[in-house]
Specification:
CATH class of the largest domain in chain B: Mainly Alpha
CATH topology of the largest domain in chain A: MetI-like fold
Distance between the termini of chain A: 34 Å
Number of strands of chain B: 0
Structural class of chain B: mainly alpha
Family (chain B): Belongs to the binding-protein-dependent transport system permease family.
Membrane topology (chain B): Multi-pass membrane protein
Number of domains of chain B: 2
CATH architecture of the largest domain in chain A: Orthogonal Bundle
Largest sheet of chain A: none
Helix content of chain A: over 70%
Organism (chain B): Paractinoplanes atraurantiacus
Keywords (chain B): Membrane, Sugar transport, Transmembrane, Transmembrane helix, Transport
Number of helices of chain A: 14
Radius of gyration of chain B: 27 Å
Helix content of chain B: over 70%
Strand content of chain A: under 5%
Order of helices and strands of chain B: HHHHHHHHHHHHH
Subcellular location (chain B): Cell membrane; Membrane
Oligomer: heterodimer
Number of helices of chain B: 13
Largest interface: A-B, 101 and 108 residues
Order of helices and strands of chain A: HHHHHHHHHHHHHH
Shape of chain B: globular
Number of strands of chain A: 0
Chain lengths: 298, 316
């Protein structure tokens, strides 16, 4: 409403007065916009802050009604519990192994494939790439049914290797799409020039293109790491024992009993989420490409 | 040092080609071999871990196989499919899923675009603001689900506590039929609004400044500028974000599992969650496979749509 009034004024017959009016109302509008943004930011961030707060509250303050926002007793007991008494440390270690191994595998398989898709003319290349991406969109609950039977048949149920394989399969499409974008940005002429100098195609890739791809590979690997780290559906259906379980199902298991130690849940959630946030911050430049599985890049 | 060495070892290989004028051809051949060697491992893994399981599920969907009963699978052909497509239970889940997908994605789009638009109009603190807004998206659905479950708790949840201090009544967020689905939508919106925001922001910042300048010289109204410059330029990207989110929301499982487990009653049971119940609680593997294949068909249609728009965007 205010906008249309403002426009009516500025479009008026006295142009001399128009600029100050517009500027003042512009400032008023800016204040409204900043206020709106602040409110939205607070709403979006409150749950995260509340989680951090809960993780450092004494137990009786965690369940206080009405909720205590500032005047609570601080304790680090919940964090100690995460690593000492809850048995979660094994799950965290499993998560590190599974996420790390699947990321390495996906990178090793995906980067050369991305390079080949970028450099060579192949039959139905576009269809192949679309097919690869579409495997990533399959509903995990549906895929897990035959995978479960398959794993039961070959003895991969409840094993780290089984999880690593399925996570790799889910990260390869992403790695190929993401890395193809990065390879496309490196001029193919570098390799052509190297080949004129007598290098083979493979050597040209290894010595000239690959070093230029390292930042892209790092960013891609970080995203693959985050996806595997956060993954829950396959983890809960394909593993059952505490020795193999990764962190997401283990943390979810904390609410299984009749009483729930929400302080511990909050502390383990913070411990679980912190590395993701740090890693995400490191690759913030590539976030748009990363979260769209390498499909959109600007 | 290593370069001349590898060069000499390479020569004999090329000397194998019979005629000197053929090197171009032989190089193309090794190129092809290289391409196959580089692509095949990745494709084989996908065939083994994605395509083969789906084909197996397709086979199972025509049988009455049960994972616990074991024994041979008898063919029932399209029995499972007709049972699912005519089941009132499934229709109800489809409706729940539709409400959830449309509600959540709609809210996310409106909110995400608003935030992106507001941020794009700021000159200072843009990076910091964007980073802060993105936090929910990077969290695992497990963390998000658990934590909202705590916050929405009827007794000691902070949401009810705040409502109480405002003088409003307590709401049983997750244990009432109506509010449970609403809670699910709200939580999903909280987590994924940043996604739409991020992509919309990418689109908004890519709009060339001179277009706005030209428009303001022409004294175009704010709304006119928004409608004729901003929206048409951001729309294709936004559409891709929306489709992406729709696919993700359609196949969502973990948030439902943690937040409500489909309850109370079946009020928050989405199709994904129902498939899980049929497969892992009812052990009707054959029926669940048919159910899953039908879901895959929906996903394939949505994905095709998504890829088509993506292709269009890339070609522009």
């Amino acid at each position: 409403m205010a906008v249309s009034v403002d426009e009516a004024v500025s479009a008026g017959p006295v142009p001399k007065h128009a600029p100050p009016t517009r500027r003042r109302s512009g400032r008023g509008r800016a204040i409204v916009e900043v206020a709106l943004l602040t409110v939205l930011a607070v709403v979006m961030l409150f749950p995260v802050l509340w989680m951090i707060e809960t993780s450092i509250k004494e137990n009786r303050d965690v369940y206080a009604v009405p909720a205590k926002f500032f005047d609570f007793d601080v304790t680090l007991d919940h964090y100690r519990d995460v690593f000492v008494s809850s048995g979660l440390s094994v799950s965290f270690l499993n998560s590190v192994i599974v996420a790390g191994a699947s990321t390495v595998l996906a990178t090793v398989l995906g980067v050369p494939a991305a390079w080949a898709y970028s450099r060579f003319t192949l039959k139905a290349k576009k269809d192949q790439l679309f097919f690869i991406l579409s495997t990533r969109f399959m509903p995990p609950v549906v895929v897990v049914i035959p995978i479960f039977l398959m794993y039961r048949y070959i003895g991969l149920i409840d094993s780290a290797l089984g999880l690593i394989l399925i996570y790799t399969a889910f990260n390869v499409p992403f790695t190929i799409w993401m890395m193809k974008g990065f390879v496309d940005e490196v001029p193919a002429e570098y390799e052509d020039a190297a080949m004129l100098d007598g290098y083979t195609r493979l050597q040209a890739f290894r010595k000239f293109t690959l070093p230029l791809l390292v930042p892209g590979i790092a960013a891609t690997a970080v995203f693959a790491l985050i996806f595997s780290w956060n993954e829950f559906v396959f983890a809960i259906f394909l593993t059952s024992s505490d020795e193999v379980r990764t962190a997401p199902p283990a943390i979810a298991g904390l609410i299984g009993g009749t009483t729930v130690d929400w302080g511990l849940v909050a502390a383990s959630s913070v411990v679980f989420a912190l590395p993701v946030l740090i890693f995400a911050y490191l690759v913030r430049k590539h976030l748009v490409a990363g979260v769209t599985l390498g499909a959109v890049r600007r | 040092m290593s370069e001349p060495v590898s060069l000499t070892t390479d020569r004999p290989g090329q000397a194998d080609t019979p005629k000197p004028p053929a090197p171009g051809r032989s190089r193309r051949l090794t190129d092809r071999r290289l391409a196959v060697a580089f692509i095949a491992p990745a494709l084989l893994l996908l065939l083994a871990m994605s395509v083969f399981p789906l084909l197996w599920a397709l086979y199972l969907s025509f049988t009455d196989y049960s994972a616990t009963r074991g024994g041979p699978a008898n063919f029932v052909w399209f029995g499972n499919y007709t049972a699912i497509l005519t089941s009132a239970q499934v229709h109800l889940r489809a409706l729940t899923t539709l409400v959830y997908v449309v509600g959540a994605v709609g809210l996310q789009t409106a909110l995400g675009f608003t935030i992106a638009y507001l941020i794009s109009r700021r000159t200072r603190g843009r990076g910091l603001l964007t980073t802060l807004f993105l936090v929910p998206m990077m969290l695992s659905p497990v963390v998000v689900g658990l934590f909202w479950r705590f916050m929405l708790d009827a007794q000691f949840g902070v949401v009810n506590s705040m409502l109480g201090s405002l003088g409003l009544g307590q709401v049983e967020w997750l244990t009432r039929q109506r509010t449970a689905l609403l809670s699910l939508i709200v939580v999903d919106t909280w987590q994924w609004t940043p996604f739409i925001m991020l992509i919309a922001l990418a689109g908004l910042t890519a709009v060339p400044k001179y277009l706005y300048e030209a428009a303001s010289i022409d004294r175009a109204s704010e709304w006119f500028r928004f409608r004729t410059i901003t929206l048409p330029l951001v729309w294709p990207l936004l559409l891709i974000a929306v489709l992406f989110r729709a696919i993700e929301a359609f196949r969502l499982f973990d948030l439902v599992y943690i937040l409500t487990s489909g309850g109370p009653g079946v009020s928050t049971e989405t199709l994904s969650f129902h498939v899980y119940k049929v497969a892992f609680l009812g052990f009707n593997t054959g029926t669940a496979s048919a159910y899953g294949i039908l879901m895959v068909l929906v996903v394939i249609v949505l994905t095709q749509l998504y890829l088509r728009y993506l292709n269009k965007l890339k070609e522009d």
